[in-house]
Every structure is written in structure tokens, then in C-alpha cells.
# Entry
Amino acid sequence: MTTAGSIAVGNRWERRALRHLERHGLESIDRNFRCRMGEIDLVMQDGDCLVFVEVRYRKGGRFASAASSIDRYKQRRLATAASLFLARNARFRDYRVRFDVVAFDRTSDSQCTLQWLKDAFRPEH
# Structure
């Protein structure tokens, strides 16, 4: 169940990820693209490459890291949503496509690490 608080937290980490990616030369195309198959947190352009970005945040070490929490099911949903984005935005159809993950993990000393995984996964066809 999604609450207003969890949405606000998610938006905060998405903004941090967006700033990080923009500082590294990527251009923002869309945020929170939603369709019936799910949501793509950030859509960015990196030269001639369209980058679909999943942003993840995890509070502590009891469960999997933020980056490793993106299982095959989530990857399929992201790939399907990306296909729909491309179908709705013809100007990007000839671009290369990449799926990145920006993961934030809170450490035991309340610090937060940022991990940017370029080309984090390739969808199965």
C-alpha cells in the first residue's frame, strides 16, 4: 500500500537522483511516466541514448540492497513500460535504449550511499 509519506520519500530520492544524473550530463525528458504496466521514475537522454532510470532507496541492511531489489519481474515491467513510452513518443524510436538504476542505501551510521548502475540490466525478449 502506498501512502502519502512513502510518495514524498520517493519523490525526494528521485529529485536527488535527477540532480546527480544532470550533473553528469544527462538531460531530463520525463519523470514518473505511468502506464497500466507500472511506472518509470526518470526518463533521461544521454547523447543518442534514451535512459530509463529506476530509483531505489533502502533504509538499512536487514533486506537486500536497493540495487539488488530489482528482480526479473520488476525488470519486465520496466521494459514493458519503456516500450509503451517509445510507442507514445515517436521522436525517440531510433534511439539506443539503456536501463539504469540509481540506488540509495542508508548505512548503519545514518549515512547514505549513492550507486549509479549504468546499463544495469537488459530486458529478456
In short: The chain has one domain: 4-117. The chain is about 30% helix and 35% strand.
